[in-house]
Amino acid sequence: MQKELIFMTDQHKKDNNDLLKENLVTYEDYASFDDNNRYELVQGKLELMSPSPSTIHQLVNAGLFKMLHENCTSDYYIFYAPIDVILSPYDVRQPDIVLVHRNRTDILSKRGIEGTPDLVIEIISPSSLKRDKVDKIKTYAQFYIPEYWIVDPNSETLEQYVLKDERFEIVNIFQNDETVTSPNINCVSFKVNEIFADLPQI
């Protein structure tokens, strides 16, 4: 009998805690589910992702990927969404950009990234603000991802979080022509305004 897939909704959170604990969705369930929507798997519950990224989101993503590719491709594999980061049988996230050091190919598989990457990056939008700044930061800390960036196209900033004592601490907010560096990713070196260059006024 096929398992009933559990979705994370406000109603489930309030009324169905016992059911959720007893009927958790696994990665295999998640991978077999196809209704033309994108989901993430969080503590055994499916979360519907936001609609397709906006044009600005896509351009910022492309600009950031370009900067990282120019600086870091010799040391890191650089992935962009959609890519499954399988952190446990019950936790699968899809960051916008992910870096995995080239000496850690053991966590790469045909299914995705199975383990803790070196860096995850999210580009926020109004619809993803809580997910990226509250929910995902908890997941990424829980699974000991050492560094997390949140890029905001509206304020044209890059917030840098570093894991310390099992919690993320914000260590810098880069803006304007400040050069982005990282305590963990030595190859990182680019001006933050380069990833926002030539965005259309829409």
Largest sheet: 6 strands, mixed
Number of helices: 5
First-to-last CA distance: 49 Å
Helix fraction bin: 10-25%
Record the strand order, biggest sheet. Answer: 3-6-8-9-10-11
Order of helices and strands, N to C? HHHEEHEEEEEEHEEEEE
- Computed Rg: 17 Å
Give the rounded overall mean pLDDT: 88
What global shape is seen?
globular
**Strand portion, in percent?**
25-35%
Low-pLDDT regions? 1-21
Please describe the structure with a list of short key phrases separated by commas or semicolons:
5 helices; single chain; 25% helix; three-stranded mixed β-sheet; globular; 13 strands; 202 residues; six-stranded mixed β-sheet; alpha+beta
List the helices and strands and how they pair.
Elements: H1 10-15, H2 17-22, H3 27-32, E1 39-42, E2 45-48, H4 55-72, E3 76-80, E4 85-88, E5 91-93, E6 97-101, E7 113-114, E8 119-123, H5 129-142, E9 147-152, E10 157-164, E11 167-175, E12 179-180, E13 190-191
Parallel strand pairs: 4-7, 8-9
Antiparallel strand pairs: 1-2, 3-6, 4-5, 6-8, 9-10, 10-11, 12-13
